[in-house]
Amino acid sequence: MAGLRDFLRKAEKWDIGEASQRLTLTKRNPETSLSAAGALHGTMRVHLHWTARASGPAPGSARERWKLLLQPNPFRPVTTPQMGQRPVGVDLDLGCLYELSDGTKGVVQPLGPYMGDLQRPPYIRLSHDDRSGAPSGEVMFVDMEHWESFRRLLFFVYIYDETPAFAETHATLTLFPTAGPRIEVQLEEHAPKARSCAVLLLERDGSEVTVRREVRYVYGFQAELDRLYGWGLQWQRGYKPVS
To answer: What's the angle, vertex CA 53, arms to CA 199 and CA 15, rounded to 5?
Structure first.
């Protein structure tokens, strides 16, 4: 157990932007092969990062220029608003629905006792729960040494506090395989009232392992994603511990 804690501590310090090559999955180019890239070994990282969009007027906007001109002394030095003023606090969470080759199904998420395990099935582990959108974001680890144990993995993002605020964030999900380019999916198509989004689907067919961009927003939470993809799990409301 101590070895796992040491591994996760070191992993959180890894440079998320270290890969020099990037593949962005889009509607026109939604799928890529991990098998072809030779990435079926080692530990793959799945990284969620987001920043809040500014809710106030942008610096240099017409509204801000008029405010400067209409003040009593327009030549007096003023402090202009900074980019990202009045950011909206949003707590995005990273989760993974998994189905293993033996039919076992479950979820890895920062609610309840479901942070996962790298040493035993499902061979998926969430490092921690970030509630701020800090540069470290949220990181999930997938042990690709056990790729034959996976049937499908659905990586998803949801808003814990029930506020439909995808439109108020810039969010990116990035896979860091052990070979080939990092694989990026941007959550830029915003359904105004959506609370969850199925982002990326990893599937194994024989010796072929592919990942495919989904970016399917839903208005509910995990149970609705479950129904959409036919997982068949039983769900109940979960809560995070008070920090």
So the answer is: 60
Angle in degrees, CA 112, 211, 200, rounded to 5: 45
Give Cβ neighbours of residue 70 (< 8 Å, ≥ 6 apart). Answer: none
Question: For residue 80, how far is the Cα from the chain centroid?
Answer: 33
H-assigned helices in the chain: 2-12, 62-70, 222-229
* Domains of the chain and any CATH numbers: 2-53+88-229 (2.60.60.30)
Whole-angstrom distance, CA of residue 118 vs CA of residue 7: 10
- The pTM score is 0.77
**Within 10 Å of residue 163's Cβ, how many Cβ atoms?**
13
Rounded Cα distance between 208 and 191, Å, is 33
pLDDT class for 5, splitting at 50, 70, 90? low
Q: Based on the number of CB atoms within 10 Å of its own CB, is 72 exposed (0-12), middle (13-18) or buried (19 or more)?
A: exposed
